[in-house]
Amino acid sequence: MRTSNLTLAFAGYAVYIYGLKGPEYGTFEVSIDSNTTTAQSYSAKNGTEPTLLFADTSLPYARHSLVVKNTGKSDTQGGDVFVLDSLQTSIQLAPAGAQVTNTTLEEDNGALTYVGEWGNNTSPAFSGGGSTYTNGDGASVSFEFNGALVRDHHSI
After folding, report:
1. Global pTM?
2. For 89-127, what is each residue's pLDDT tens digit?
3. CA-CA distance, 117 to 4, in Å (whole number)?
4. Taking Cα atoms as reference points, which of 81, 102, 96, 109 lies closest to residue 150?
5. Are residue 124 and residue 67 in the same domain, yes or no?
6. Distance of CA 23 to CAs 41, 71, 115, 139, Å?
7. What is the domain-level CATH number for residue 32?
8. HEC per residue, 19-62
C-alpha cells in the first residue's frame, strides 16, 4: 500500500472530515498540531453517500496544522482504501462591514492546476458528482487565491 497524506493549515476551532465507508475501507490518522488520533472508515456495508468520519470541535480558535494520512487495513478488518470527500472547518468570517463571499471549487474547476498523475470518478456520492484522485508520487493540485481565508466546505 502506498501511503498518502493531506496537509492543510487552517484558522478555526473545529474540523470535520467527510468520506466514504465500506468493507474495503480501512483506518486513517488525523494529526492536528501534532496530536494524532486514529479513525476508521471501515463499515460492513458500503455507504452510498459521504458521511462524517472524524470531527474535533474542541480546538482553541487559532491557526492549526492538519495532516490526514491513510494507514490502510486495521489488524482485523477492512482494506487499504480511504476516500476523502471533503473537509469543513470553522472560520472567523470578517469584521463588521466587510464583504464576505463563498466560492466552492469542485475538482473540474479550471482554476485548479493538477501536476502529476491524476484520475477521475463520477458518482452522486461525491460533492459535485465527481472526484479526482492520485496515487502518483509528487502529485499536487494548486490554485491562485486572493483573499484572507480559505475554507474547506462540505455540502450535502
Report:
1. 0.61
2. 987 666 667 777 777 788 888 888 999 999 988 988 888
3. 14
4. 102
5. no
6. 9, 15, 31, 27
7. 2.60.120.260
8. ECCECCECEEEEEECCEEEEEECECCCCCCCCEEEEEECCCCCE
